């Protein structure tokens, strides 16, 4: 509901119209649950693969630690999307999944050397877990794009200015 203050009558409330996107509709909840599930798949796969990838650099940063960081970040974003479903949550989901999705084929097809503390992660094969992660990340990107489009499309409109009591001007506090 939208509220405004009318100095002579107190708050003026405009009821929400059906079809307005408030992050609580059935469509919004379905988007949130699907995105959180896809992010959970991504997090579980990264957490499960982390120990095997860390063995190449047991004392350093290593791919395993990067996978654990990815799993933790993705899990937190998934919870944020599921609990809030706000525009910032969807932007974060889009950036997290989109960034991961961009890196996945990069390290599959390009032999990127080690850069600073980051190890070389070239792996020229596709396997089930990598494909599953790519599909989950793609789903999150698409779901976030739909959710952000709905947020933009159904942005609340400002209320029309309300009449002021005679002798009052905007910005004066009520006593």
Short structural description:
With 175 residues, the chain is mainly alpha-helical. It has helices at 26-54, 62-83, 87-109, 128-153; strands at residues 2-6, 10-14.
| Mean pLDDT, all residues | 82
Largest sheet: 2 strands, antiparallel
Structural class: mainly alpha
| Rg estimate, integer Å | 23 Å
Instruction: Name the beta content range.
Output: 5-15%
Q: Cα distance, first to last residue?
A: 26 Å
Tell me how many strands there are: 2
Order of helices and strands: EEHHHH
For the largest beta sheet, what order do the strands appear in spatially?
Answer: 1-2
**Count of separate DSSP helical elements:** 4
Report on this model:
With 175 residues, the chain is mainly alpha-helical. The chain contains four helices and two strands, in the order ββαααα. It has helices at 26-54, 62-83, 87-109, 128-153, and strands at residues 2-6, 10-14. It has a two-stranded antiparallel sheet with strand order 1-2. Strand 1 (2-6) and strand 2 form a beta hairpin. The longest helix is centred in the N-terminal third of the chain and has 29 residues, at 26-54. Mean pLDDT is 82; it is low at 13-21.
Which short descriptors sum up this protein?
single chain, 175 residues, mainly alpha, two-stranded antiparallel sheet, 4 helices, elongated
Topology readout:
Blueprint (H helix, E strand, L loop, with lengths): L1 E5 L3 E5 L11 H29 L7 H22 L3 H23 L18 H26 L22
Helix pairs in contact: 1-2, 1-4, 2-3, 3-4
């Amino acid at each position: 509901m939208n509220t405004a203050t009318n100095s002579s009558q107190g708050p003026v409330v405009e009821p929400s119209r059906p079809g307005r996107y408030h992050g609580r509709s059935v469509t919004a909840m379905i988007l949130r649950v699907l995105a959180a599930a896809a992010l959970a798949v991504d997090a579980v796969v990264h957490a499960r693969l982390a120990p095997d990838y860390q063995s190449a650099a047991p004392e350093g940063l290593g791919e395993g630690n990067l996978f654990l960081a990815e799993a933790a970040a993705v899990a937190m974003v998934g919870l944020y999307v599921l609990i809030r479903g706000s525009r910032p949550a969807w932007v974060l989901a889009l950036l997290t999944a989109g960034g991961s999705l961009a890196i996945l084929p990069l390290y599959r097809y390009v032999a990127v050397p080690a850069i600073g503390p980051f190890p070389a992660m070239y792996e020229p094969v596709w396997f089930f877990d990598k494909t599953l992660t790519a599909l989950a990340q793609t789903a999150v990107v698409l779901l976030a794009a739909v959710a952000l489009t709905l947020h933009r499309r159904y942005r609340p409109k400002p209320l029309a200015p309300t009449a002021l009591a005679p002798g009052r001007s905007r910005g004066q506090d009520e006593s």
